Predict the 3D structure of the following.
Amino acid sequence: MDLDLARWVRDLMLGLLSDLPRKNCWSIAEWAPEATPDGMQHLLGRARWDADAVRDDVREYALEHLHDEGAVLVVDETGDVKKGTHTVSVQRQYTGTAGRIENAQVAVYLVYAGLRGHAAVDRELYTPHPWTRDPDRCRAAGLDEDAVFATKPEPAARMIGRFLDAGHRAGWVAADAVYGGNSKLCSALEERSIQSITRPSFTVVAFCWIMPPHWPQIWHARNQKRRTRHHGPRQQHASLGGP
């Protein structure tokens, strides 16, 4: 990689992780410090690089440092609120970032979480119906003009598949009811020898066919703590009231 590009990548990532109140190429360049934002704008707008290859590198780096036999995968979507209409896949839709319907761009993420920490290891952009029905708009925004609409569980299934195909595993996969109620995703999990369970609290938890051996002990210990917390004071009161 060109040394300038490597520096811009480093500065951009550190800037995004910083406590800057507003994060864009101008504010991050000033924070870095860089004389102008030209380098970061070139990196994001004109430089040629393979986003999927970067994704794979990030996944392998994360697993190298965060590997945990008891790790889990978490699937969820999040959005970025936008002002205009030209950002790819933007439209008025619900986003948890704002907690309401906003003009936003939404993506589905796969996170690897274990005792050593957690990291996003995959992502796919959610493209709404109005975009996939407009090939010209897709082409202008850099999307394949043959892009087809996919519900959010579909990219979730693809991301879990990529994770497993790369030779990695996790004890179970957790997601909310948007994913747990989708028959195609459940079928995809079953095909990969993963069983899914939907809880009444609208949380779906999918358990791998081989659960890490220490999870039953952890589950039992947590249940014991709940029983002590919920019933302990009542038992103490009863004993104080005895003869």
